[in-house]
Amino acid sequence: DGWILEHDPRRPGLFQFRNPRGGPPTPAVHTIDRHPGLTLELDLEPPDPRE
Hints:
Blueprint: E1 4-7, E2 15-18, E3 26-27, H1 31-34
Antiparallel strand pairs: 1-2, 2-3
């Protein structure tokens, strides 16, 4: 479909989608937008194959 994901210059650290047919970009919706102050712990360790 050709949509482009790019950094949003008006919202540092967030993204926007650009329609390949032109027009204004569409701001991406992020969890941080919906739940200000919420933190999310990321488990970056690989899963234990014995479990």
